[in-house]
Amino acid sequence: MRVRLSRSLAVLTAAAMLCGLTGCGTINEKLSEGMGDYVPQWAGGLPADAPPRPGTAKYDAYMKEQERLRAMPAAERAKIEGTQPGQTPGAARPAQ
Q1: What is the reported pTM?
Q2: CA angle, 40 as apex, 65 and 67 as ends, to 5°?
Q3: What does DSSP assign to residue 16?
Q4: What is the DSSP letter of 45?
Q5: pLDDT tens sequence across 42-86
Q6: Alpha-carbon span 43 to 30, nearest angstrom
């Protein structure tokens, strides 16, 4: 009787541990979405010039600004961005 009780206790313990581990996948998925914002750039986080995340007020303002720049003629846009016409905006900045 004692062996049967300890065996069933071991099975129940293993089942409880497996059920506890199944939640780790969804927790890590949720944490990784937001934790990237708090990791410093030197440790692999987002760069300083990364666009804001969708669904925020800053994102809406960013998209309006992008649309305004897209509607502008290339010569005017180049003056604002500090590049020459036909040059990509990232190419004007020196490498760090």
Answers
A1: 0.45
A2: 10
A3: H
A4: -
A5: 887 778 888 888 888 899 999 998 999 888 888 888 888 776 666
A6: 20
